[in-house]
Amino acid sequence: MKSTLRHAAGVDQLQQLDELMVCRLDRGRRTVTPCTIVIFGASGDLTARKLVPALYQLHRDRLLPQPVRVIGFARREKTDASWRAELFEALQQFSRSKPVDAGEWQSFAAQLSYCQGDLADPAAYERLARQIAAAESEPVARNRLFYLAVAPSQFGEAVRLLHQAGLLQRDAPAPAWQRVVVEKPFGHDLASAAHLNTELARFAHEQQLLRIDHYLGKETVQNILMFRFSNAIFEQLWTRQAVDHVQITVSERGGVGARGGYYEEAGALRDMVQNHLLQVLALVAMEPPVSLEAESIRDEKVKLLKSIRLVRPDGVVRGQYFAGHRDSQLCPGYRQEPKVKPDSNVETYVALRLFIDNWRWSGVPFYLRTGKRLPLSASEVRIQFRPTPHVLFAAECGPRLAANALTLRLQPDEGITLRFNGKVPGASVAVRPVRMHFGYDTEFGAYTPEAYEHLLLDALAGDPTLFIRRDEVETAWGIVDHIRSGWEERPLTDREFYAAATWGPAAADGLLAQTGHAWRNPEPVT
Ligand code: BG6
C-alpha cells in the first residue's frame, strides 16, 4: 500500500510530507561541550568492537564535541601510533560505515592518544592527569568522561584513584563536568552492587555515575516508550482487562565462545536477566511517567521493578546446552567450551514466570526467557491479548481461533506486527490470522545506529535517562538473587539440559503449560 502511494505521489513529495510530520524532542537537550574522553581498558574487546567504532561514527556524523580528545588507558606497552594502528584494523571489521574513509579516519585518529599504566598504580593516574592537562583547550582539560571498560572488580579502585589524582571531583566548579561511565556487570549480587554503589558514591555524585545497559541504547527499546505513550489506541489495551499474558524472548544463536571464564561466574541470569530483560520488562509494563525528564522515567521503572512479586521456585526454569547439530555441523556443549568446567552447573538458559502486583497487571503472567545456542538470534516482546467471548466464531472454531497478538520485534528485522483474524476470500466461510506489519527498514530506510553511539552521546551531554540509577540496579539484583537462591545448591537435572540449536529445555514448555500457554518462537528473518 505504502509503496503504491509512494509511486503515485512521488517519493520525494512523500518524504517531505513525512519530514514535516516529525516532532523533534531533543532540541537543546543534547548539548555536548569540548572534553577529554578516557577509556580504561583501551586494549580490550569492547573498545575495539564497540566504543571506538561508535566514536568514529559520531565523528563522521559531526556529532562529537569540538575539540575533543580520546585517551586510551591500559597496562600494555603501546605508542599512540601503535594503538591507532590496532584500532584502525579493528574498525575495518566493526565499523558500520564500510569501507572506512581514509580522510575521516585521519582526522579522527589525530584526536586519539595512549596512556600506559596499571589501574592500581597511583603514579599512572598522575601521568594521565598530566596528559589531560596538556590539552591546548581549557574546556578539553577540565571536562572529562571516564569510561570504565574494565573488570568489575576494578571499578571501585579506578574511581578512588581518579579522585585521588584530582581528576574526578564530586563538586567540580561549573562549567566543568566530570562523569564516569560504568560497564556491566554492576556487581555480582545485591550485596556487592550495594557495596560498589557506596564506594563510588564517596567520590562521585549519583548524577556523575552512568551505569550502562546497552539495551537501552537500542532504537527499538527506546521506541517502547514512544509506542506506548504516543498512541492512544494501544495504551487503552495495555491492561489486565485486555492482555492475557506477555512473552519477552531474547534468544541468541551463538554459544559462550571465548567468554567461558566470565560466563562461569555469571550465567544467563546475571548476564542477561538482571539487566537487559528486566529493563525491557520495566519499559513494557511501567506506568506513564509524569514527564519525559530522566528522573520521572527512572522513578516509574523502579516502581515497576518493586512491584514484581518474589518468584516461586515453580516459576523458574534454567537450562544448559549440550552438543547438538545445526545445519549438519556439530556445536559443542557448554561444558566443552573453553574455560568452562567439565561439570559446570552454570545456566545458559533461563525462563521465568513473573507477576506484577499492581493495579494494571494483577494476575497477568509475564514470561521472560533468554538463552545461548538457541535456533536463532532474535529479541521480541509479544503482547498476547485475551480471546473473544466463547460465542460466534470462537464457539465454532474453539482454540483454533487465534487470539490477537502484538509483537514488538526488537532485533533483528526490527518492527511491530499486529495479528488479527480475517476472512479467507472465497465462497466458503473460513477465518484465519493475518498480519499487519510495520518494518523499520521499509518506513525509515536501512538505518541501524549502534546502541553505543546513542549512549556515548548521552553520556557526553550528561543525559542520564538511558542509564541505570542506583536504586534500579539494586532492585533488579534483589529480584535475581531470590531466583538464584532457589537453585544455587542444586545440580542441573536431565530435564534442564537442551541440545544446542533447540528452543531450550523441555521444562520451559512445562512452565507455560501449567497456565495453559505456549511459547511463541520468534520467526527467522526471511
Ligand atoms: C551482553 C551479554 O550484555 O549482551 C552477552 O554479556 C550477550 O552475553 C549480549 O551476548 C547480547 O547483546 P545483543 O546486543 O547482541 O543482543
Strand content: 15-25%
Arrangement of strands in the largest sheet? 16-15-14-13-7-12-11-8-17
**Structural Rg:** 25 Å
Tell me the span between the first and last alpha carbons.
20 Å
The set of bound ligands, ions and cofactors reads: 6-O-phosphono-beta-D-glucopyranose
Describe this structure in words.
The protein is an alpha/beta fold. It has helices at 2-9, 11-21, 45-60, 80-94, 102-109, 122-133, 138-142, 155-164, 190-201, 219-229, 232-237, 260-285, 294-306, 392-397, 440-444, 451-461, 470-485, 506-513; strands at 35-40, 68-74, 112-116, 144-148, 178-182, 209-211, 243-251, 316-322, 324-326, 329-331, 349-355, 365-371, 378-385, 405-411, 415-423, 431-439, 497-499. The strands form three sheets. Strands 16-15-14-13-7-12-11-8-17 form a nine-stranded mixed beta sheet, with helices on both faces. The chain has a six-stranded parallel beta sheet with strand order 3-2-1-4-5-6, with helices on both faces. Strand 15 and strand 16 form a beta hairpin. Helix 1 packs across helix 2 (11-21). The longest helix is centred in the middle third of the chain and has 26 residues, at 260-285. Bound molecules: 6-O-phosphono-beta-D-glucopyranose.
